[in-house]
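Appendix B, record 7
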Amino acid sequence: MLARVVAAAIVALVGLVVAPVPLAAAEGDGQCTQVVDPITNEVKWVCENGGGDPGGGGQNPGGGSSTCTYAGSEIPCSLGGGQWSSKNACYVIPTPVSPQPAPPPGQTDQDGDWHNCIQPAGYLGSNQPVWVEAGETLIDPAVLAQRAIASMNLDPITIGIVPEPGPDRVGLVGLPVWMWVEDQAPNTYGPITASASQGPVSVTATAKVSSIVWDMGDGTKKTCTGPGTPYEDRYGKQDSPTCGHRYEQMSDDQPDDAYQVTATSHWVVEWSGGGQSGTIEFDITTEPLPIRIGEAQVLTQ
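Structure tokens (predicted):
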């Protein structure tokens, strides 16, 4: 049989069949091995060092996730250092098989290499190596999604707020504060769509802000799910109907006598392409904006 084809061996009379090809789990999680119950034919992953079940993940660093589909079920798009290949219906490990079997008919040793092809957890298969042509790239659509996001040139919002910032501007304790997105541009609030391609694979991603967390500088954080309502003089002392706050103390004990206000936009990106789809989430925070708060003085004679 071809080298490194997964071969089963019964380790006990009613034991497990163990695939001798170890798959690396997530970094730092040790090694994972595919095992098959000879009675139920159930396939599981056994991981050393508490690696967990790599078949149930799909999480990427930074809070994103990507999913691939196989036999009507979602599976992780990468596993054991391999990338899911819809063409071959398995995880293709980038390290060539050694020693190399004879090339397929019509091919030579210079035309490509055999690579290990591992079935996803929960599915039985031959796990036989597949031929990868020279120059053929095992493209990860999730990487293309990140490239599409980078091309969007996303920026933090421009803060709209009353009371206004400035050395000659002072709000009052107890009066309503209004917060909003000053400029709802596609690259600061969304939605914005971009694509990235490599070889035959193209991925399209659409990003938009799902919520904004306003850190008011006084220990209060307000989460607003919309862009907020711009203040107008006709609103007087009304509270903002969508995103507001009231300061209970003066800011004279703060650095520069001002509360430092920031707005953190939570972006959600939906992407698809290359037979995969996923969601990537991340935050972008503004620079601090100083807001001074004082108290009204009452004059008596």
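Remarks on this record: Residues 141-151 form the longest helix (11 residues). The chain has a mean pLDDT of 76.
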